[in-house]
Amino acid sequence: MKRLKIKRNRNPEVGNLVARLLDVHNKLPRGMSLTGNGNPRLKQPKPSLLPTARNARVSMKSKTRACTKKAQMEMIGLVIIVILITLGILFMAQFALKETPTKKIFTRKGLAASTMSTIMKTTIINEQGCHFVDEAPQLEGRILEDCAANRNLDDSYFHYNCRGMNSCDFMEQFIAERLNETLKVWGKRYEFNSRLIQGSTPVDLIPPIYSARGGCPPTKDRDTSSPYPLNTPSGMVESILYICD
Amino acid sequence: MKPNKSAQIRMTETIAVLFIFFVLIAFGLIFYYQYQKVSFKEKQAELFANKAMDTTLKTLFLPELACSKGEAEPEANCFDLMKLRHANQTIKDHLADYYFDLFSYAKISVNQTYPHPELWVIYDKKPNQLNQLNSNLNYEPTFFVVTLKDEIEGSYGFGFIEVGVYS
Questions:
Q1: Do A122 and B156 touch (CB under 8 A)?
Q2: Rounded to an integer, what distance in angstroms lies between the CA atom of residue B92 and that of residue B104?
Q3: Would the ipTM clear 0.90, i.e. be above it?
Q4: Is the CB of B40 inside 8 Å of chain A's CB atoms?
Q5: Which of A165, B43, B70, B79 is most exposed, with the fewest beta carbons within 10 Å of its own?
């Protein structure tokens, strides 16, 4: 068999392949070739178109095809990862954009407003020590006015003396009782403030009333009755009730 | 022998990768299922709460209870004691033809705390099958503080309304 020699290709990979093929070809026994069984009757290709070179081209093609397939696989993998990340983000967004239940907002806000107006409207009955000569007074009426007018004076100056207390102390106790039998029972935290506005600086008419579990500072998620203003001869009394969970 | 071994390694690698992938998918599915279960329950509770809120609003503005005077605007958060004392009978008489469509399965009661404690249950309709079985009812109460006006004495009492819906 004729020993083959070929010029070294500039591409090192192709060159190496060609060299290896040549080596294999040269070691083949007589009558055998890389392309066929070596039948001398079969038309052999010209030395310029050696089978080794063709094989090298074929090998290159299959290698390129394998590379493309690998790239496609990687692309699919990336797409799957992107889909999974998108799903995760959507899932998280669902949690983040969840709205507070409407009922909670409505109930607490409505409750604060209704509690405030109801307390202020309540009529004080002729109980221990309260001897009303004429009709029974409402809390927002004469009791509050009496408290605002005489808050800095001695008890003897007050018009009403229910339960042996002046109007301010009675009002404080009465409001605390009403809040305790409703909001406290329902497990709500609350804070009640009543201020007298005379001039520019408001002063506390009664000390703030807090629930046993504490008040509702601005840092908490709280709802308000909105200020409940009442005009008295001594100035404007502004009361506010905060409710929180 | 060498290419065979290499192929086997590659096969094992592919199987391992696929196994991990399917395990992750399974975890994701389990997590999603659990989340959906909780989410469904939450949605159900929200719908239930909305129903309670609707019933409460209907009750608060019910002309059969509201404090009204002729054509004047009714007082907010106020129930007339005179109306309240007779509301139970009125509602009972027209339960099937009117009030059941309005309140469905619910319980409405008014509780006076000042000047003296008193309770009026004006509407109470439990789902029949649950009532018979005496099983646990899902009950969602909503409370509202109301003024109770006594037209005879011209005074305002302090109380609250409890509106609960059954499901």
A1: yes
A2: 13
A3: no
A4: no
A5: B70
